[in-house]
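Bench log. Compound arrived from synthesis this morning; before running ITC I wanted a structural hypothesis for how adenosine-5'-diphosphate sits in the protein. Inputs:
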Amino acid sequence: MIKKILIANRGEIAVRIIRTCKEMGISTVAVYSNCDKEALHVQLADEAVCIGGPRPLESYLNMYNIIQAACNTGCDAIHPGFGFLSENARFARLVEECGLIFIGPSPEIIEKMGNKARARQTMIQAGVPVVNGSRQIVNDVRQGRQMAQEIGYPVIIKAVNGGGGRGMRIVFSPREFDNAYHSARNEAKICFKDDEVYMEKYIVNPKHIEVQIAGDKFGNVVHLYERDCSFQRRNQKMIEEAPCFSIEESVRQNILADAVKAAKFVGYNSVGTIEFLLDEGGNYYFMEMNTRIQVEHPITEMICGVDIVKLQIKAAAGQKLELSQRDIHCSGYAMECRINAEDAANNFAPSAGRIDFVNFPAGRNVRVESAVYNGYTILPYYDSMIAKIITWAPTRLECIKKMRIALEEFIVSGVKSNVEFQYMALHHKKFIEGKYSTGFAGEFIEELKSNGNLV
Ligand code: ADP
Ligand code: ADP
Ligand code: MG
């Protein structure tokens, strides 16, 4: 069994992982950049090692310093969290070559599923429905224009190594193609140091439905039901719920079965998520796989009563999955609001600064995942997410009502946040009906702007 884990991350996810390690009797080592000395994950871990300067490349993306820290402190495993090095096959391989356990799937699987164009091909082989699109990467603008014509507008150009909603452009007509193509490649180059792109049919008004998967090194794979992550701003999730409220039961069963089929096909041996798009006609398509723990994993933990980080650590340690599909039940509804330090009235621009005062919501079936505290300063170098508020209730409407109360209790001063915006969304008829698609949040923002109500 694993005795000591280095957590190669920061913020709420590092804190989340430390908590499970403590429950499992595993010692923890935090790493931090030299501006993160006061961070909560540093204070909660058993030990902490400074790994470099404030910029991610100097510290949280610095593979050598991280692995060195793990070796020097006698760790036997590294947990990458999400973002940063979590889907970096080279890092996973280096960790293993240094005799440590990487808490995630094998490097070969990350390689296979991390590249989106390659993952599409693999899923076609697995017999899982995939959005109509380019067979490989799009090398130049002429080839791209021709492919777009064949696929049929609208199309979406996507970075093969993309993530976090970056490196994507929707193109509605041939006139817009050239600009969109170049700007997608530019953004991909800046964000992912790799400007390869591919193309898909753009599905109009889809729902984003994803399935939580758990596997082990013995070929067992189960699903932990689905999440609806359709409330997105600029292709970035903001509110998630589980299970999906408005899906037909037969479609749900097919998506769950296909997700397990996809994971089994690649020999998936950790926890992960398979993302699908569901169109207005009830057809669904594989979109991508995230080979890591996800931001929104707590809502699945709430409806299934499992600790997903624990499953992930046990799988990495070579233990057999203790759950069979029959043991996993979905009960009630859960919802998560991602609270970001951003200024809704100013195009949701990041709002770094000192938190003078913060009050977290609490009460029955209210869960908060955060790493900020009174007097903490939000740094401009990292993600603007400051807290995740999670609620659970027997029915969806009760869950929404509980979330509204939780957001009322959430007070933060010193920085701007998207709490008020989310609070308003929770009162929108379309949201309450549960039938909203990925375009809904954007339309609601425009609606509020035109009424002068975006605060
Ligand atoms: P999810 O919400 O499904 O877990 P996201 O795509 O929102 O996944 O990513 C989770 C976190 O990881 C976010 O902070 C996001 O900015 C970051 N992230 C995701 N992919 C990448 C990537 N390829 N490079 C850098 N950061 C990423
Ligand atoms: P990331 O790695 O950034 O999470 P995804 O491929 O998961 O990228 O796409 C992010 C979001 O962009 C999706 O949740 C969806 O809202 C939108 N999107 C991506 N591909 C398509 C598509 N083919 N049609 C419509 N929307 C899409
Ligand atoms: Mg995605």
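What the model suggests: The domain at 4-103 is CATH 3.40.50.20 (Rossmann fold). Residues 275, 288 surround magnesium ion (ligand 3) (CB under 6 Å).
ITC booked for Thursday regardless.
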